[in-house]
Design a protein that fits this description.
This protein is an alpha/beta fold. It has 10 helices and 15 strands. It folds into 3 domains: about 1-70, Arc Repressor Mutant, subunit A (Orthogonal Bundle); about 90-160 and about 270-308, D-Maltodextrin-Binding Protein, domain 2 (3-Layer(aba) Sandwich), CATH 3.40.190; about 165-270, D-Maltodextrin-Binding Protein, domain 2 (3-Layer(aba) Sandwich), CATH 3.40.190. Strands 7, 8, 11, 12, 13 and 14 form a 6-stranded mixed sheet that branches.
Length: about 300
């Protein structure tokens, strides 16, 4: 394969994976017009249309999807081989693509960006915020960050945070108007703020546990969202009871008296955040360095295999 042909295929894969000429061009360091010309050359050379384009979106045709499925693993392996060759020189370099939950990006990645760059200036971090649980292998990501219980199968996992508590919360105004539930069953008489899982669109069924007794229930109320800021704001404004992961904004609201914990003895403990990557490939040096930075240590992070 000639170099120009490989460049065309890599450009095509970048467009498919980012569903955008602008984002793919930015990733490849090209102008959108140059990238568009590259794709037209590839389609002309193969004699088949690979992408359906509109003014608002771009998506692969049936032929394009089949081509991407075949070439994506090969491009991934070639990138890994190049990274290993660079590592042999003692340098940590290359592009590291991470697919992560928004809360992990905010809590773990963002505060450490400067330190990681100063230690590894030749590594480009490509951080994609994705609460929809995308397939990191199909998306050609080097790793993903998820809550431990929602990891994909057949992955190597590195624990990043301890287990976290789920908290039932409501504003003092709401509790003064509607009273405080004493058991999960009381929630059926209350307004509740629901969480919709991004990607699947499924609404979370609230889970509780007390002295080995577990409950799972559907609740109803005036607000449903797939964004943490929206559901927290709804609780702060007295729309209803929220059941959410403990985070910095929740801690501040509780400390200031704007939200009160309820049903504390029924709160479920949920697995913490894990970074994971495919067990079919060795982590490149840049990924090992990234894990070490997330854990605030220098040695290689310990690994474990999650249960299927």
């Amino acid at each position: 394969m000639r170099g120009t042909e490989f460049a065309e295929l890599k450009a095509f894969a970048a467009v498919v994976e980012r569903a955008s000429f602008a984002r793919a061009a930015d990733h490849l360091g090209l102008s959108p017009s140059a990238l568009s010309q590259t794709i037209r050359q590839l389609e002309a050379r193969l004699g088949v249309r690979l992408l359906n384009r509109t003014t608002r979106s771009v998506a692969p045709t049936t032929a394009g999807s089949r081509l991407h499925q075949r070439i994506a693993p090969m491009i991934l392996e070639m990138d890994a081989a190049v990274a290993e060759a660079v590592a042999a020189t003692g340098r940590t370099a290359g592009t590291l693509r991470i697919n992560t939950l928004g809360m992990a990006a905010k809590k773990l990645i963002a505060p450490r960006l400067g330190r990681f760059h100063r230690a590894h200036p030749d590594v480009v971090l490509d951080i994609v915020i994705d609460d929809g649980l995308s397939d990191i292998v199909a998306g050609r990501f080097d790793a993903g960050i998820r809550v431990g219980e929602r990891l994909e199968k057949d992955m190597i996992a590195v624990r990043l945070t301890p287990d976290v508590k789920m908290l039932a919360l409501a504003s003092p105004d709401y509790l003064s108007r509607r009273g405080e539930p004493k058991t999960p069953a009381d929630l059926h008489r209350h307004a509740c703020i629901n969480w919709r899982f991004p990607g699947s669109g499924r609404i979370y069924r609230w889970e509780f546990e007390k002295k080995g007794r577990k409950l799972e229930m559907a609740v109803e109320g005036p607000l449903i969202s797939n964004h943490q800021d929206v559901v927290i704001e709804g609780a702060l404004q007295g729309l209803g009871i929220l059941y959410a992961y403990d985070d910095d904004r929740v801690d501040v609201a509780v400390a200031r008296g704007r939200l009160r914990r309820i049903l504390a003895d029924w709160s479920l403990t949920s697995p913490g955040l894990c970074l994971y990557y495919s067990n079919r490939r060795h982590p490149q040096p840049a990924l090992r360095a990234f894990i070490d930075r997330l854990l605030d240590r220098d040695e290689t992070a310990s690994e474990r295999r999650p249960r299927p």
